[in-house]
Specification:
Blueprint (H helix, E strand, L loop, with lengths): L8 E4 L19 E6 L7 H12 L10 E6 L11 H13 L4 E4 L2 H10 L5 E5 L19 E5 L3 H14 L5 E6 L9 H11 L3 E6 L7 H6 L7 E5 L8 H13 L3 E3 L7 E5 L1 H16 L15 E6 H6 L6 H4 L4 E3 L1
Parallel strand pairs: 2-3, 2-4, 4-5, 5-6, 7-8, 7-9, 9-10, 10-11, 12-13
Antiparallel strand pairs: 1-3, 11-12
């Protein structure tokens, strides 16, 4: 594993004076927020600035009334989800700093932190199912020391299957590409398959875990040619590599790939990432004011966004139906 020692802790300090509320009630008491994000220290400035800007909207200003401890657990080449030892080390060191709350941005990080503490409040912003991955007991009543926001819902799954059917009304097969072994997407591929079957698709399972998480090899080894392909991220490896592989596959095969991130691929449908992060950080502010994570419901997306890339559609010979165009939030020419 490269750059295993790339973990760094960056500390900014200030005094917090809350007018009221739980742990923050004592005047002059210093509170600490731990933040564990999917990046290295180098190049993290944009993500850190976005987090701090969002927190400032809830009355928490880094350098003025907030002390933040950042834990960086990514290495130079790989998606940090592929580095469990580095993540575990970051979690251990972050918990040892004894912050009043911890914010994390992926399931694997949330699990690593929860393995170290069941007392420090943990707020997450994740793409997977928090219940299936063991982060909370239920979405409405988390019941432990963790709560937060999740971006990947049953509605976002069904929406992409519906788009596939509208895009290709005569299609017979759809491929679900996922790492079926990772905890981060536990249960979601099977939900996709159920929705696909309900819309008359034959499922073609493409499990990258059976190919050493080699996405290109998994796609090449598909047992049958599908009419469309749906992705379930994450895929481990260099950060942009999955997109390059999928783009090349789409161009060469002329099979549309339906992504979960609006603004990517020929067509995509999913929740707004920024909305999820804002929801999680609003919860973080509540927790720092003394609210219990056990009593704060997990924030759910309120709207699914659709994007269409007309240039890419024309390149693979796909005509986007008007029914999709009128609902698209973003159309790229």
């Amino acid at each position: 594993m490269k750059r295993r020692d790339a973990l760094a802790l960056l500390v900014g300090s200030a005094w917090i004076n809350w007018p009221s509320g739980g742990r923050a009630q004592s005047a002059g008491r210093m509170l600490v927020l731990g933040v564990m994000i999917n990046t290295r220290r180098e190049g993290s400035e944009r993500m850190s600035a976005a987090i701090e800007k969002a927190l400032s909207r809830f009355g928490l200003e880094a350098g003025k009334n907030l002390r933040i401890v950042y834990a960086y657990s990514g290495d130079s080449d790989d998606n940090a989800g592929a580095n469990p030892e580095l993540i575990a080390k970051a979690a251990k060191e972050l918990v040892a700093a004894r912050p009043d709350a911890i914010y994390v941005d992926t399931t694997i990080r949330a699990r690593a932190v929860l393995a170290e503490t069941r007392t420090i409040p943990v707020v997450f912003s994740v793409g997977g199912d928090p219940v299936a991955s063991g982060l909370v007991k239920s979405l409405s009543h988390p019941g432990g020391n963790a709560t937060g926001a999740n971006r990947f819902t049953d509605e976002s799954i069904s929406k992409r299957i519906e788009l596939a059917r509208e895009l290709l009304p005569k299609a017979k097969r759809i491929a679900i590409v996922a790492d079926y072994a990772t905890i981060q997407v536990r249960g979601f591929p099977e939900i996709f398959e159920a929705h696909a079957a309900a819309h008359g698709f034959e499922n073609v399972r493409v499990d990258t875990s059976r190919h050493g998480n080699d996405l290109a090899a998994a796609i090449k080894d598909m047992p049958r040619r599908p009419d469309a392909l749906i992705t379930v991220f994450p895929f481990f490896g260099p950060r942009q590599e999955p997109f390059r592989i999928l783009d090349e596959f789409e161009r060469a095969s002329r099979i549309p790939v339906i992504y979960e991130f609006p603004g990517t691929g020929t067509i995509a449908a999913g929740s707004n990432w920024e909305d999820s992060v804002r929801g999680a950080l609003e919860i973080t502010a509540k927790v720092l004011r003394g609210a219990s994570p056990a009593d704060i419901p997990v924030h759910q997306p309120t709207r699914i966004q659709v994007s269409v890339n007309m240039k890419r559609a024309r390149a693979i010979g796909i005509e986007i139906p008007r029914s999709i165009m009128v609902r698209a939030d973003r159309v790229m020419e």
